[in-house]
Amino acid sequence: MPPRNISSDLKAHIPALRFEFGFSVQEICKILGIHKTLAYKTLRYYCLYGTTSNPHAQSTFGRRKLTQVDLAFIWDMIAQRHSVYLDEIQEELLAHRGVLVSIPTLGRTLRRLDFSRKKVTARAIECNEIMRAAFMNRIGTEVLDLAMLMFADKTAKDERTGGRRTGWSRVGTRCVQRQCFVHGRRYSILPILTLDGLITWDIIEGSVTSERFVQFLRENVVRSIIFKLSY
Description:
By secondary structure, the chain is α+β, with helices and mostly antiparallel strands. Among the domains are: about 10-50; about 70-110; about 145-160 and about 185-230. Helix content is about 45%, strand content about 10%. Strands 1, 2, 3 and 4 form a four-stranded antiparallel beta sheet that branches. β3 (about 185-195) and β4 form a beta hairpin. The N and C termini lie far apart (about 70 Å).
């Protein structure tokens, strides 16, 4: 089924195909993917007014309350605060622009501006982009061979690690699953990854401290590198 609102560019092809190329209405509908009702109506308007639409028709919608300046105000607000609520936009418009609009109007306005509601992707506010760029430049200068790069990370496991956070149940009932509430023994895993893959790892009971991490680098990582270079 074609969309309810047909673009003026598509309508402009209807009289051209009919009067210039001699296609029938049925053929035009197949070519453009439209209904016969739209084709006949467009041809009638073209014969009466010389255009593909009725120039005397009035819009069924009232005049929009939000001006281009108001839309730019909303755009800038969302650019600075992506998680702003509709009622907060409503209050800011009334306070700074003197315009009072309803929540449904704001929702339609945001859709008209190509905004949609999404899950927020968090980015650390402590991240310094300038220092990050300087670090990348330093790495690019000092690391002459990609084989020199080693990546370390840590993960942990306890009795609650396998517990699932979501589940299914009938509407109106709780989703109850028996599982451990006590951590039990906690194990931390330290892997080292290079271009050759995982070269070494260690499993530590408890959490990883800075002293334990340095010990892991000396006893595991350095020993693996020396063993690799010796062969």
